[in-house]
């Protein structure tokens, strides 16, 4: 044990605390112990020196003098390079002989010897055959001096370059020498033409046509007669070729091409290509413009790298070609040049014809139209220039290289010019892009250009181009970029429409202008828990500027710090009025994007302060030089849009930024007293009223109403002084008065909430009740009488043609005000029902009825479905119900309260109208037998039960829409005018209608999502939640009512979508479809869907909405049928319906292939299916795999008439048509026909044999469901005899 301990201590690993003496002692212990080492010692060969590895070419006695290389596993042999470039290798090191044990000093002395050693090795060159040339006699006394300029064209090579060239020449000679020794035949074979490119005949040049070999030069041979020896070798090769036949030459050629390196073959062909032009081309070989080419004999794979011989041969060829080009590119004659150069011209000593081509006249433009797509070109105004239009050159539209004859600039050229060094070019290109964007947004290019111009520009990076241009130090370029950005973001038509609809019902509210494309969920988050997934904000921060800009242009610009730059332009640059207006419109568009974007505009340092101080001052003096220091309507509109984003933003504007003070200054005086232009004064007061209306919509700025009440009354009285229609200011005056009425409407709503808030009776969502506004109901009651008089006056003015248009514009806003007044009046303590009813009767008789019966109003609604005012309202209840059902799936976010009200009051209320009479006249037939399937006659009983259950059905649907409760409350506050509770006038994001078009299926779909879980390709069915049966029953009852009485309401749902959603009845649970109420209702819906008038519209080849294909759903249905159906007749009919002949073959292949076992339980008769059998048998099947499956299932007994009558008849029909078909077909199909016919003939089952051979036509009224021949028709009998005869003859031949 002590000995083992000593050994362990001897072989311990070194420690950091060991000294050098300890390490040496441990090394000695290790060497004496003889223990195996942890690392192996190998001899690594040096590939660059051509050395062999360990044990190769070395004797054992020299191993001791070699260096030991220690290699450790998983450690590279060489250190990694610090640079990405490969290590440099010397071209000449491999040719030097070195030894490992050689001393470097001795090697240096051997190479650096004394000059005597060099002189002693001088060998005199043989000059016996060198011709001697005497110098030419001249009349000059001294030889001509050689000037350096005369030798400038000679290429001088350095010693290193000459050494490399000599090495390449040596390698090429070595390669050719080895080639001539190894295979002398391919030299002469490859330097001749073996194949004729035109006729394919063999052609060999004669010895007289070839002056010598093309590959072997004889330079490597020693002796004075090297060239003669080379010629003799060449003649021998020629003689051998002459003695060989054409087939032998081709065979040898194939062998050589197979054996030789493809790079060597390429080298030989390149040498041949150099020498071919010196020989006359035979007449059989046609010449083209590029010269004679070597026809490819065999497809040879060429590698990317090339051998040294190929490199050596490419260089002289390149030099030669360059020389030829220099000789061919002689200067053109002076008459061919556009101008004649003069000696006096500066820097014209060297002629450059390609540059002089710019001075030549342009070619004529295209005169005729073409169907070929051409590049779009635009002028500086953004107008598309036709290709055939010939414009003068002085317009500056021809300064481009591509298509010089066409005027205008392409988008690519404009992008290039926008990054030019010339300021004018940058400015002009950006202005042109702005004009193009403006016309593209107006739709001027839709009919003449393919694709979208705006999308093309955005994909090309327009946002980044404009953002970079905004940073330009030149004000002109910056101004052009601002104008282009405004053209991209702002749509003037949209802004005008939003301004015009501001005074409509709920006109204050607007949708955020977000992109419609939805962002796809990251694949990284798939399969993670909700707590592990990244939030939307984290994902947004992780994206790059390009990714954000590609999805949302406004977000991308905000991420690129657009707002600080716009602030700098307004505050520091102080540009022209047009640029200021563009910047304000851009800010307005950003504020419309979303509430977060509006918050960023408010939070940008000094941006809003600059807008308020420079463009909404409290005092100003008229100036025509600059708009700085003057109030601007566009700045007031920016404040209004920012206030729309939320009540907190509005409060910041009114209190922190001084917007309330600006409203007082602008609205306390008449527009003509504001020291502004008339149009601008009307616009800015209109925007001030709108901003005030938005603030009053939150219950804010109401104290201002009390302070400015006299000014408001004065403005109301001015309505009688509206200018005539011919006055250009009349539209602005109307808009100003509409904004004033909108303000009064919102103040009325706010005042109506004062009493409720004062009493503290209502709290919103458990939060503290907001404070009551300073305005009460008594402050607004005095306006109703005067406004009522105005309304009656405008109704009378409808008869005046000059005032008709203005009256039609104002009347709807008065009606909106009166609706707000009487709605809020009913909530006040001072409300007197009797007096209010009398007022409403007077209003109806004096105003509303004359208005509705007026010819002008009748003309406006003539295209609508007019509902006459009749005392018998019950007669029109059906119409009201139909309108409610049509409107319901079209309501957008923000109208959730209307959805709730329609569902609660109208949609699920039994009208008692014509439907009740129809219901009483229906013949109600109860089922007499349990196994029989219900028919259409039993639908009446189901309808009667559904009408009784309408209140329960309404409760079912309202329960499934309970998730909209919070949205309903927010929408209710906005619709009913509960202004102090409104948080924002910005509506939710517009992602589509509130309810989907297939909302009647919602209970069924939600149940499927809860219980049907796809796992591993199958369908795992969980336990149904409580009340699921009742919910499904109510859903099916409602669907039955709609299908019978309100079919128009379900027209938006495709029949395939109806079938797919009703399939959830079978997929939700293993026994839900077996429940009696569910089974009866589903049978009724199945009968309605499979009526003869509806079957053709049921196209299962179209993917249902929400599914990739119907085949996926059918696969789940079939799997569920095999698992839980127990041969249920309803489920069987549901599975059989998609197997009709006109639908996809995939579903029939799935049944007869993967799920063939279900054929034993599909026992539905043709009467129960209620679908004509011809839809399963016609036209004949043409899928050979499916026909084979039909035949196999019949022959093997898998498919029997007693088990599956419908598919048995279908399979018989298709197999019978196939085996006796006379149509021409492929050999495989014909062979399958013969094989099936022979097998059928020799069947032992006589019944099946007779069915297959004697089948005639399907007949559903017969016992067998098909008709049979008594005996085979003659033509079929002959075919059977022919097929059997062919078999007997083949058997005889085999014997």
Automatic annotation (TrEMBL):
Keyword terms of this UniProt record: Nucleus, Transcription
Composition bias, Basic and acidic residues: 48-66, 530-546
Pfam family, one: TPR_RPAP1
Region of interest called Disordered, as start-end residue ranges on this chain: 1-20, 28-96, 271-307, 319-339, 516-546
SUPFAM superfamilies for this protein: ARM repeat
Main location class: nucleus
Domain RPAP1 C-terminal intervals: 375-440
GO process terms (BP): transcription by RNA polymerase II
Residue ranges with Acidic residues bias: 518-529
Every RPAP1 N-terminal domain range: 232-273
Listed InterPro entries: ARM-type_fold, RPAP1/Rba50, RPAP1_C, RPAP1_N, TPR_RPAP1/MINIYO-like
Domain RPAP1/MINIYO-like TPR repeats, first and last residues per copy: 1000-1226
Superkingdom to which the source organism belongs: Eukaryota
Annotated compartments: Nucleus
Similarity remark: Belongs to the RPAP1 family.
Protein name per the record: RNA polymerase II associated protein 1
């Amino acid at each position: 044990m002590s000995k083992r301990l000593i050994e362990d201590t001897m072989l311990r690993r070194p420690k950091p605390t060991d000294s050098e003496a300890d390490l040496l002692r441990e090394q000695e212990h290790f060497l004496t112990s003889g223990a195996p080492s942890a690392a192996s010692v190998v001899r690594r060969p040096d590939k660059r020196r051509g050395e062999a590895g360990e044990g190769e070419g070395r004797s054992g006695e020299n191993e001791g003098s070699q260096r030991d290389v220690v290699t450790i596993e998983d450690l590279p042999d060489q250190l990694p390079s610090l640079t990405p470039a490969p290590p440099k290798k010397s071209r000449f090191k491999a040719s030097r002989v070195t030894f490992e044990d050689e001393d470097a000093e001795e090697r240096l002395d051997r190479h650096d010897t004394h000059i005597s050693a060099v002189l002693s090795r001088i060998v005199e060159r043989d000059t016996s055959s060198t011709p001697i040339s005497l110098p030419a006699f001249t009349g000059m006394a001294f030889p001509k001096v050689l000037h350096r300029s005369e030798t400038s064209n000679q290429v001088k090579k350095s010693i290193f370059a000459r050494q490399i060239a000599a090495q390449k020449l040596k390698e090429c000679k070595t390669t050719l020498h080895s080639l001539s020794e190894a295979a002398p035949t391919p030299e002469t074979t490859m330097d001749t033409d073996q194949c004729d490119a035109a006729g394919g005949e063999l052609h060999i040049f004669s010895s007289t046509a070839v002056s010598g070999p093309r590959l072997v030069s004889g330079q490597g041979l020693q002796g004075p007669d090297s060239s003669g020896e080379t010629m003799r070798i060449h003649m021998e090769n020629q003689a051998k070729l002459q003695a060989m036949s054409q087939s032998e030459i081709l065979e040898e050629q194939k062998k050589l091409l197979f054996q030789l390196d493809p790079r060597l073959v390429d080298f030989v062909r390149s040498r041949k290509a150099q020498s071919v032009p010196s020989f006359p081309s035979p007449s059989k070989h046609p010449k083209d413009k590029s010269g004679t080419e070597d026809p490819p004999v065999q497809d040879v794979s060429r590698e990317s790298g090339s051998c040294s011989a190929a490199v050596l041969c490419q260089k002289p060829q390149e030099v030669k070609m360059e020389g030829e080009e220099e000789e061919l590119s002689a200067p053109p004659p002076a008459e061919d040049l556009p101008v004649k150069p003069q000696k006096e011209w500066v820097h014209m000593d060297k002629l450059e014809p390609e540059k002089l081509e710019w001075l030549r006249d342009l070619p004529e433009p295209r005169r005729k139209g073409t169907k070929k797509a051409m590049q779009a070109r635009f002028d500086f105004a953004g107008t598309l220039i036709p290709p055939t239009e010939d414009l003068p050159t002085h317009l500056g539209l021809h300064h481009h290289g591509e298509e010089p004859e066409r005027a205008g600039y392409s988008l690519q050229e404009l992008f290039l010019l926008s990054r030019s060094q010339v300021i004018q070019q940058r400015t002009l290109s950006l202005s042109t892009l702005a004009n193009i964007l403006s016309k593209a947004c107006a739709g001027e290019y839709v009919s003449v250009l393919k694709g979208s111009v705006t999308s093309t520009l955005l994909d090309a990076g327009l946002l980044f181009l404009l953002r970079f241009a905004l940073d330009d130090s030149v004000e002109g370029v910056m101004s052009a970029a601002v104008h282009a950005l405004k053209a991209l973001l702002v749509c003037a038509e949209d802004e005008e429409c939003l301004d015009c609809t501001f005074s409509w019902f709920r006109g204050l509210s607007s949708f955020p202008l977000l992109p419609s494309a939805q962002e796809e969920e990251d694949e990284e988050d798939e399969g993670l828990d909700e707590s592990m997934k990244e939030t939307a904000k984290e994902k947004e921060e992780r994206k790059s500027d390009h990714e954000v800009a590609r999805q949302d242009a406004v977000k991308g610009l905000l991420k690129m710090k657009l707002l600080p730059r716009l602030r700098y332009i307004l505050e520091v640059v102080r540009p022209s009025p047009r640029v200021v207006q563009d910047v304000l419109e851009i800010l307005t568009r950003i504020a419309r994007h979303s509430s977060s974007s509006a918050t960023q505009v408010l939070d940008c340092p000094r941006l809003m302060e600059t807008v308020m101080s420079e463009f909404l001052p409290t005092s100003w003096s008229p100036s025509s030089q600059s708009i700085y220091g003057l109030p601007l309507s566009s700045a007031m509109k920016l404040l209004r849009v920012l206030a729309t984003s939320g009540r907190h933003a509005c409060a910041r504007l009114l209190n922190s930024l001084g917007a309330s003070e600006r409203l007082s200054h602008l609205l306390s005086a008449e527009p003509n007293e504001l020291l502004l232009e008339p149009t601008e004064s009307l616009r800015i007061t209109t925007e001030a009223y709108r901003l005030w209306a938005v603030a009053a919509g939150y219950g804010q700025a109401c104290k201002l109403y009390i302070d400015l009440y006299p000014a408001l009354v004065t403005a109301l009285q001015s309505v009688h002084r509206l200018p005539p229609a011919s006055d250009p200011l009349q539209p602005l005056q109307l808009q100003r008065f509409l904004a004033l009425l909108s303000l009064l409407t919102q103040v009325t709503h706010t005042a109506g909430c004062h009493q409720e808030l004062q009493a503290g009776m209502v709290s919103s969502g458990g939060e503290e009740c907001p404070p009551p506004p300073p305005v009460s109901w008594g402050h607004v009651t005095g306006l109703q009488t005067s406004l009522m008089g105005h309304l009656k006056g405008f109704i009378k003015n409808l008869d005046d043609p000059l005032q008709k248009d203005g009256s039609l514009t104002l009347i709807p806003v008065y009606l909106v005000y009166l609706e707000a007044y009487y709605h809020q009046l009913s909530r006040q303590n001072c409300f007197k029902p009797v007096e209010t009813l009398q007022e409403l009767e007077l209003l109806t008789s004096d105003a509303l009825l004359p208005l509705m019966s007026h010819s002008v109003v009748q003309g406006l609604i003539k295209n609508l479905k007019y509902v006459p005012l009749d005392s018998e309202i019950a007669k029109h209840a059906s119409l009201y119900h139909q309108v409610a059902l049509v409107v319901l799936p079209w309501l957008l976010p923000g109208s959730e309260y209307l959805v709730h009200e329609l569902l609660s009051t109208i949609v699920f209320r039994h009208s008692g109208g014509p439907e009740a009479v129809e219901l009483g006249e229906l013949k109600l037939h109860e089922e007499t037998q349990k196994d029989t399937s219900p028919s259409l006659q039993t639908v009446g009983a189901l309808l009667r039960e559904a009408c009784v259950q309408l209140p329960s059905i309404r409760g079912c649907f309202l329960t499934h829409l309970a998730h909209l409760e919070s949205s309903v409350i927010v929408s209710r506050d906005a619709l009913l005018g509960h202004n102090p509770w409104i948080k924002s006038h910005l509506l939710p994001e517009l992602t589509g209608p509130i309810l989907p078009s297939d909302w009647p299926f919602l209970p069924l779909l939600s149940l499927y999502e809860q219980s049907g879980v796809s796992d591993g390709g199958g369908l795992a069915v969980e336990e149904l939640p409580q009340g699921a049966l009742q919910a499904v029953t109510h859903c099916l009852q409602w669907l039955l009512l709609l299908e019978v009485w309100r079919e128009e309401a379900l027209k938006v749902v495709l029949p395939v979508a109806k079938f797919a959603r009703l399939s959830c009845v079978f997929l939700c649970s293993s026994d839900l479809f077996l429940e009696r109420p569910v089974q009866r209702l589903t049978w009724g819906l199945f009968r309605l869907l499979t009526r003869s008038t509806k079957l053709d519209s049921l196209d299962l080849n179209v993917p249902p909405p929400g599914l990739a294909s119907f085949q996926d759903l059918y696969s789940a249905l079939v799997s569920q049928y095999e698992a839980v159906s127990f041969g249920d007749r309803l489920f069987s009919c549901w599975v059989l319906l998609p197997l009709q002949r006109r639908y996809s073959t995939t579903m029939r292949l799935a049944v007869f292939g993967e799920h063939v076992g279900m054929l034993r339980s599909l026992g539905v008769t043709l009467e129960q299916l209620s679908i004509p059998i011809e839809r399963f048998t016609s036209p004949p099947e043409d899928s050979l795999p499916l026909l084979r499956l039909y035949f196999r299932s019949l022959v093997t007994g898998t498919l029997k008439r007693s088990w599956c009558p419908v598919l048995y008849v279908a399979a018989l029909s298709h197999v019978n048509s196939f085996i006796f078909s006379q149509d021409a077909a492929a050999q495989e199909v014909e062979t399958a026909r013969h094989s099936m016919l022979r097998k059928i003939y020799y069947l032992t089952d006589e019944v099946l044999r007779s069915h297959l051979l004697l089948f005639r036509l399907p007949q559903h009224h017969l016992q067998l469901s098909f008709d049979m021949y008594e005996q085979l028709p003659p033509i079929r009998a002959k075919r059977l005899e022919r097929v059997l005869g062919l078999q007997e003859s083949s058997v005889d031949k085999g014997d």
